[in-house]
Write a structure and sequence with these properties.
It is built from 11 helices and no strands. 75% of the residues lie in helices and 0% in strands. It is mainly α and 288 residues long. 34% of the residues are buried. Residues 115-119 have low confidence and may be disordered. The radius of gyration is 20 Å and the shape is globular.
């Protein structure tokens, strides 16, 4: 591991850091487009909002604090309305994660039959059941994504939610073309942070075919997206899941852990620190 790190480390780490900027830059562009119908936000302001959201989300379940960080950069009358816009961006990323994750899960089921057959069930029976359930969830999520009027109808029919309908009206303003473009940006972002992880795995000496690593990594991201967790303790779970799946391709456990820690530091902790600095600036500005 240390030999490959010395040999490739400088260039690889520089590339990973550059891709981190592209990763969150694409997320900022998504958010900029999502809130455009509320108010015009510059890309730099959107980028600052995204990093601030990362900072507030690091101690919250499934990063829900992200909404609070971003809404600080909106005018007062649009703060609550921007939450619905942020949720649509998250939904587009979830759909991409499910699609890639299901592809990886199909590869995993067909190539790594870990459950022995018995008199009642064939190998990987439960994995195939899980695959079917996830495909159904994915299909329903995609339908909901392109039929957001369903959400408005639900709010209208439930009395306790009726007053809150005004805060989600923004979701009816997105055209099918807008939603498709958001999916494209989400897919590009997915490829970027997947590439970051593969680069770090290679840098730390994990030997595997890149496409196999990509597919099993897709399963890892799917698991992390579906399991409720807090970002500060996510690292332990991510490490265990990564060792389980990537361990099928390589027995270099130390390198897998190192790459997992590295990607967590670069893609989450560093942006959170930068976001904290930006939040401090917002607070000082408001105090003045």
């Amino acid at each position: 591991m240390w030999f490959t790190l010395r040999q490739k480390g400088g260039v690889a780490l520089t590339l990973v850091f550059i891709l981190m900027l592209f990763n969150w830059g694409l997320e900022a562009r998504k958010w900029q487009l999502l809130v455009r119908s509320l108010e015009e936000v510059s890309f730099l302001r959107a980028f600052s909002a995204v990093l601030s959201g990362v900072s507030l989300s690091i101690n919250t379940p499934n990063r829900i604090g992200e909404y609070g960080g971003r809404m600080l950069y909106m005018s007062n009358q649009n703060k609550l309305k921007s939450i619905a816009a942020t949720m649509i961006g998250g939904l587009s990323q979830l759909i991409v994660t499910i699609i890639f994750g299901l592809t990886g899960l199909i590869y995993y089921i067909n190539n790594f039959p870990l459950i022995k057959a018995n008199a009642y069930f064939s190998p990987n029976f439960w994995e195939k059941i899980l695959l079917g359930v996830l495909m159904l969830i994915g299909a329903l999520t995609i339908i909901l994504y392109f039929r957001l009027q369903i959400v408005i109808a639900i709010f209208e029919k439930i009395p306790v939610l009726r007053k809150a309908k005004v805060f989600i009206q923004i979701i009816t303003r997105y055209t099918s073309a807008d939603l498709q473009y958001l999916l494209l940006l989400s897919a590009c972002r997915y490829v970027i942070f997947s590439a970051q992880y593969l680069i770090l795995l290679d840098t730390f000496g994990v030997e595997m075919l890149w496409w196999q690593g990509f597919l099993l990594n897709a399963v890892i991201y799917l698991v992390m997206a579906l399991v409720p967790t807090i970002a500060v303790v996510e690292l332990g779970l991510r490490g265990k899941v990564s060792i389980y799946f990537l361990g099928l391709l390589s027995n270099n456990t130390a390198a897998i852990i190192a790459a997992t820690v590295g990607i967590w530091l670069v893609n989450l902790l560093l942006p959170a620190v930068l976001g904290s600095i930006l939040l401090l600036g917002v607070k000082i500005f408001k105090d003045k």
